[in-house]
C-alpha cells in the first residue's frame, strides 16, 4: 500500500500547479474552458461560471484548458493576451509549486524535524599517563555529566573540557551500568594528538526524536529548504565537474523512482508515526517540479516563456502554428526521455533515503 503514496503527492502537486495557471488566467480575463483533476476518461463534470470542472479517471495529474492557447484571434483567448499577461500565466504554475514546497517544508519543521535529543558519549581509549588515566577513566565509560551538567553531544564535552583547562572537572560516567564519579584536570599544554585529557571519544548510540519548531522559525527554515532544492542541481553539477560528486548521482528520476522514494517515506511514517519524511519529500518534489517546468524546453511552460521572450526581442510573435508544431515535437521528445528515465529507474533502483529516525 505504501507504493500508492505517490498518487496523492503527485495529485497535490499537479492540482496546485494548474490552479496557479487557472487563477491568474481568470483574473486576467482569459476564457478558461475547463479545469480538470486527473486525466480522461471523464467520471464527472459540472459547469460553473462558464468553466467546466471535471473529475477524471486517471488520478495522477490535472490540466487547465484555456481558449485559443495557440490562436490569438478569438476574444478572451490566451494567445491574444499581452506578453506580460501570458508570461504571468505561464509562471504562475511554477510559483504555486514553490509555495507548496515552502508550506510542506514549513509543516515538516512545525510538526517535528528529527533531532538528536541525547547521545551516549563513550570513551574509546585512554592514553597512559594522561590526566584521564590518572583520574581513573577507562575505555568503555559513558560520559553522562560534567559538574552536574548533562552531556548530550561530543561538542558539549569538548566545550566543557576547554572551559576547565588547568582546573578540575567532575565527571559522572556510566561504567557497566553503575554511575561513577571521577575528577579529571585537563592540561593547558599537551602532546600533539592527545588533547587536554588524553582520551578519544565515540558515539555509542544516539536517540533521535521529532522536535517541533516555532511557527516563524519553521517558515524561515521552510523557505530555506525550498530554495536549497532549487539551487541544488547547479551545485551538484559544479561538484561533479570538480570530481567531488559521482556523475551517476546526477541521474534524473522518473515516475518509478519517485514512487520508490514516496513508498520509502510512507513506510518510515507508518513505522514511526513521524510526518516529516512524506512532507519533506513532497516539498522536494514540488520545488523540483517548479524548477524543471521553467526550463526553456518545448512543451514546458519554460519553453512557452522562451517564445514570449523571443517575441519581445523581435517585436513580432512566432506564427502560432509553427510554435504549436515545435511544442508538439518537444512533447514527443520529452515523453521518449521520460520512458528512458523510467526504464533506468526500474533496472537500477535508487538507494533508500536515510531519514535519520534511528
Topology, element by element:
Elements: H1 6-27, E1 32-48, E2 51-66, H2 83-111, E3 113-126, H3 131-135, E4 142-146, E5 149-150, H4 154-163, E6 169-175, E7 178-184, E8 199-211, H5 215-242, H6 255-272, H7 276-293, H8 301-314, H9 320-347
Walkthrough of the structure:
This protein has helices at 6-27, 83-111, 131-135, 154-163, 215-242, 255-272, 276-293, 301-314, 320-347; strands at residues 32-48, 51-66, 113-126, 142-146, 149-150, 169-175, 178-184, 199-211. With 358 residues, it is of the alpha+beta class. It has 2 domains: 2-112 and 223-347, no CATH class; 114-211, Pdz3 Domain (Roll), CATH 2.30.42. Strands 3, 4, 5, 6, 7 and 8 form a 6-stranded antiparallel β-sheet that branches. A two-stranded antiparallel sheet has the order 1-2. A hairpin with a 2-residue loop joins strand 4 (142-146) and strand 5 (149-150). Helix 2 crosses helix 5 (215-242), helix 2 (83-111) runs antiparallel to helix 8 (301-314) and helix 6 runs antiparallel to helix 7. The two termini are 23 Å apart.
Keywords, separated by commas or semicolons:
single chain; 358 residues; alpha+beta; Pdz3 Domain; 6-stranded antiparallel β-sheet; two-stranded antiparallel ribbon; 9 helices; 8 strands; 48% helix; 23% strand
Shape: elongated
User: What are the segments in which pLDDT stays under 50 over at least 5 consecutive residues?
Assistant: none
Work out the number of β strands. 8
Number of helices: 9
Structural class assignment: alpha+beta
Q: What gap, in angstroms, lies between the N and C termini?
A: 23 Å
Number of domains: 2
Strand portion: 15-25%
What is the H-and-E element order? HEEHEHEEHEEEHHHHH
Instruction: Provide mean pLDDT, rounded.
Output: 89
Gyration radius, in Å: 29 Å
Q: Give a quick account of the main beta sheet: strands, pairing sense, barrel closure.
A: 6 strands, antiparallel
Oligomer: single chain
Estimated helix fraction: 40-55%
